[in-house]
Design brief:
single chain, 220 residues, alpha/beta, seven-stranded mixed sheet, 11 helices, 7 strands
């Protein structure tokens, strides 16, 4: 492996819990009651455009616009109130010697805020890619292929660290090795699949990146 591609929300910064909580609240307020399981299934790991399309189809365009305005405002407030890196992430980054980059469904503005708030932006500056740069977001492979191309590394030499089902599916579709972080909201069973290592402690990642086969954690 010559490049490690990190998702942002839920992998680098512990923001997926914030997002899920806000989506639950907004759904209750604006006419689409959702369970946490439904939020994870429908929204986690997907681009804002994909989520917006779902919301608009359910509650209408005017309400969807209000939904997103409220989400952006409240999310920014909660990030500023105390967003932290994912547990064990700083230790993992310190131990990983391979080149790294970020490829996220979030916008550049959102990533600048969350990575900046947690002190991670400078670590990845100049190597941050957004789904807004490609035609199709996750679970399609476009974003990861775009990141690999920009970094000058063939897909077969890339590892992707993801915490969502659409994310690991996108990595596999791109022909990359997937590492599914199950310490967040998505159950381990939904991350498992061919060529995918599932783990639940970010401190284990450096060792896993150096191991070709981990039979206990790899589903083939």
């Amino acid at each position: 492996m010559r490049l490690v591609i990190f998702d942002c929300d839920g992998v680098l910064v512990d923001s997926e819990r914030i997002a899920a909580r806000l989506q639950l609240a907004l759904g209750a307020e604006l006419g689409w009651p959702l369970t946490e399981e439904e939020v994870v299934e429908r929204f986690i790991g997907r681009s804002m455009a994909s989520i917006d399309e779902q919301v608009a189809a359910r509650v209408g365009r005017a309400t969807a616009d209000r939904w997103w305005a409220e989400f952006v405002r409240r999310h920014a407030e909660e990030v500023d109130a105390g967003l932290e890196p994912v547990d064990g992430l700083p230790e993992a980054l310190a131990a990983i010697t391979l080149p790294t980059c970020v490829a996220s469904s979030g916008s550049h503005e959102k990533m600048a805020h969350t990575l900046g708030r947690t002190g991670l932006f400078d670590h990845f500056a100049g190597r941050i890619f957004s789904a807004t740069e490609v035609a199709r977001g996750k679970p399609e492979p476009d974003l990861f292929l775009h990141a690999a191309r920009r970094m000058g590394v063939p897909p077969s030499a890339c590892a992707v660290v993801e915490d969502s089902a659409p994310g690991v599916r996108a990595a596999r579709a791109a022909g990359m090795r997937a590492f599914g972080y199950a310490g967040g909201l998505t159950p381990a069973a939904r991350l498992a699949g061919p060529g995918t290592v599932v783990f639940d402690d970010m401190r284990d990642l450096p060792a896993l990146l150096g191991v070709r086969r981990t039979a206990r954690r790899t589903t083939r």
